[in-house]
């Protein structure tokens, strides 16, 4: 039962990795903002949600949202005022709300695309969103904080969002990571299964399944011991002895207590009886009869 739930959980994790792979590949899709007036370029990264940029790119006027509404520079709500042009690309700052909320708000405000600038001095990141994002019909990209400040200083300017080529090396890295993750996961499952199998065998092996005999001094062979190695008392006639698979003999009371409260191995030779399967124990039992 426990293994069933565990394998179900692993299966769910594998499905999550498979679902993550397409989005993981998105983060290697870089793009560029080209300012038409001075031909200056700014590196950006396309979001994991929304449509992809067309091969020919997207041309429009890049407008900072705070120029339209000073109290809405983050772009977290629909604009109450109209933008100065219809073909405009919203420039907003990161923070206060999620990336998907910014894009939806700017889409509702009439923007044809959204450029989100970082509010910290970090590198480029991929914007992700949870839940259904099929309602998002405009592309969005992420830029660094320094580029955000430079573009804000440009004021409304004609710009083009251009998609760069996919980085094959980065995509290969993603595939390698996913394959290694699955391999490590399968090894972990196998090791856990082996541990649980061993624990189950230890639980199933009880002293009563191990061979016994009645001791008689007259039948004792010369090489056979005269005393129990656990309690150090001599065997007496009609004492019940238990014979472990390693052929060492002990008082039943002594060795049963040892096997059930201490360890699952022979007190003399340390042979682990939990590693022996049932046929081996039964064979040993038949030999003692």
UniProtKB/TrEMBL annotation:
Q: Domain RING-type: where?
A: 228-270
Keywords annotated in UniProt:
Membrane, Metal-binding, Transmembrane, Transmembrane helix, Zinc, Zinc-finger
Record's keyword annotation contains Transferase: no
Organism of origin:
Rhizophagus clarus
Which reaction equations make up its catalytic activity? Answer: S-ubiquitinyl-[E2 ubiquitin-conjugating enzyme]-L-cysteine + [acceptor protein]-L-lysine = [E2 ubiquitin-conjugating enzyme]-L-cysteine + N(6)-ubiquitinyl-[acceptor protein]-L-lysine
* Top-level enzyme category: transferase
User: This chain belongs to which protein, by name?
Assistant: RING-type E3 ubiquitin transferase
Q: Where are the membrane-spanning stretches?
A: 169-193
Select a single GO molecular function from the record's annotations and give it.
zinc ion binding
EC number of this enzyme: 2.3.2.27
Compartment(s) where it occurs, according to its Swiss-Prot or TrEMBL record: Membrane
- Specify the protein's topology with respect to the membrane: Single-pass membrane protein
Name any one Pfam family assigned in the record: zf-RING_2
Major localisation:
membrane
Q: Which GO terms describe its cellular component?
A: membrane
